[in-house]
């Protein structure tokens, strides 16, 4: 039995989510994802922040041989900036998972999310690992959903996705990619605190998985920039069981992994802390893709622009001011900007009437044409709202 | 007669502020500052934004010969992204000032601030120039204050400052530097929309003024970063009349100019849009000054950090997460962070109790020790508040 979505959609995976008691709210806070094989190939992309949480350091080491048998994830505490004792806690967590499942601790990835600078209550966490391991058996589709729920922090909904490879000769999907994600704040390039677990029953070597994962994150999670902040704990894992017996082409695999990442990334934007608009900043006519990303990111990082969108104000001057801070190739007098299809700025000056722009829908599309070449890119962000300020000023209190 | 502060404090300057009717509010919106000599040396620092307003393009040209006889400044419209017609408007403004004062238009600097992307009502503006020129005579100390008021946008108070050179043999100050500034939002490195006029009665060649001005702005206005945004209109002018007859040493002049810039910069932070805290992020123990500035700026640009300060939350994890995004030299396990004198993070981990931190005063001091060298730098910012979001979402409506 497989579920229709999430980490247990592909064959060869079990999952569970339980309540270990790490969160004051008493909500689920511990998840397990287990790869039952027959293969255990894996790849990971980790935060590029130089201040890295203990679980990030552990998981980098654990994944260095391209093998991963299980992932344990907790919300309710990031275990970041906790020094050597924090690393010992992560190690103990991996050992507990290994003991419960009869595998090696070095094949267990660990992910944590929550407040920085506090030790985890290890008695509760280790008891939770035992409970989660028990809950695995017979968990079926529900296990994937439970795991996706247990990793939520300020997320208001859990996030799961699935993509299927081409059908086999029998008309049945030959293999699939599933995934779950959490991360409602701190989304940023170089990834976010954002934890993502992707699974596939395709047959693929670790190097192939790594290439597919890096290609996918580069154009999905790396192009979501909710508030410009980068976490100490970002982790995106891809586990392959080989249970389908199908070895897809590298392009096919990359496309399926990218589709799941794009789906999850869009869900993250839609659930960003306190946001009232999801904003796609699409830059076209760039000399290079790097230029397009640089310009789009400059716009998505402008607090003035983001506050204007919150106020349903098509303030294109703030877009131009942000574009002008970059070193991308463009002529300031050639810039065009559209808000939801209305070209309010033409050739660097006043264009069509801003009165024609309707910013009431949640999704807003900004189009910037640099008129400098053939490249393009889209970066997603959110507006800057009263609720964002409120949630992030009250987060740790 | 000289005033005790502002642009008319040094000898040889007159100023005026009038209401041309550019602002819907009917508040003063046009200012003139005139250098009556005997010398007319000058220097300017302009925005590094590549999208530059018409007055910025004009003023760069006008100041290229190191001479400036008068400055006209308007609030109520930035004249940015207005194309060739906008440049014609700026030119016409300079011509009107030149006609009224009997000087050359090429010796008139023009500064504008307000909404981007709208033409100025030139009939009102030119009539305002005539009125301001009339108001100059006998304006004395009040003229400087009126000019400082007329350049305000969302500023709640006008900003003026003065510094005196060493006393002469007669015990009287031999020369002085005065100044005025506006700019309550969009403060950022590379300057802000922020218009600043500095005056001095010292004798100094344009090259000396330029060196003093660049040295001063580098460690003052360039280290104020209210919201990470950079304007299309930033201008800092320094005009020297030579009326004191004293030629100070280059160090003396630089120190006095820096003192006035530092005073004005601090006033800008104190009046930033919607802010409830002024935050000094001081980085010490850096390998280089560039490293110190890079780290301090990363912290001042973290929306999560700024929102935490709004909530009186000494969330040092967000400081570390911001530090970790930089390429400065440091060991993550050696970082120390203090909030208002309490060392809440020691050696990259938990330090003294955050309960001991009092963030209720408006001024907050964050100290980050990188333990990587002898260099240091301080960057000022503000917290991220409900009022910031409100003011900037409603700005153009």
UniProtKB/TrEMBL annotation, chains A, B:
EC number: 2.3.1.35, 2.3.1.1
Positions bearing the site annotation: Involved in the stabilization of negative charge on the oxyanion by the formation of the oxyanion hole: 113-114
Chain positions recorded as substrate binding sites: 153, 182, 193, 273, 392, 397
Gene Ontology BP term (one): ornithine biosynthetic process
Active site positions, chain numbering: 193
Top-level taxonomic group: Bacteria
Localization per record: Cytoplasm
Known pathway: Amino-acid biosynthesis; L-arginine biosynthesis; L-ornithine and N-acetyl-L-glutamate from L-glutamate and N(2)-acetyl-L-ornithine (cyclic): step 1/1; Amino-acid biosynthesis; L-arginine biosynthesis; N(2)-acetyl-L-ornithine from L-glutamate: step 1/4
Catalyzed chemical reaction(s): N(2)-acetyl-L-ornithine + L-glutamate = N-acetyl-L-glutamate + L-ornithine; L-glutamate + acetyl-CoA = N-acetyl-L-glutamate + CoA + H(+)
UniProt-listed Pfam families: ArgJ
One GO cellular component term: cytoplasm
Site (Cleavage): 192-193
UniProt KW keywords: Acyltransferase, Amino-acid biosynthesis, Arginine biosynthesis, Autocatalytic cleavage, Cytoplasm, Multifunctional enzyme, Transferase
GO molecular function: L-glutamate N-acetyltransferase activity; L-glutamate N-acetyltransferase activity, acting on acetyl-L-ornithine as donor
Cited InterPro entries: Arg_biosynth_ArgJ, ArgJ-like_dom_sf, ArgJ_beta_C
Enzyme class of the recorded protein, top EC level: transferase
Subunit-structure text: Heterotetramer of two alpha and two beta chains.
UniProt similarity note: Belongs to the ArgJ family.
Free-text function comment from the UniProt entry: Catalyzes two activities which are involved in the cyclic version of arginine biosynthesis: the synthesis of N-acetylglutamate from glutamate and acetyl-CoA as the acetyl donor, and of ornithine by transacetylation between N(2)-acetylornithine and glutamate.
Official protein name in the record: Arginine biosynthesis bifunctional protein ArgJ
Organism: Quadrisphaera granulorum
Designated gene of the protein: argJ
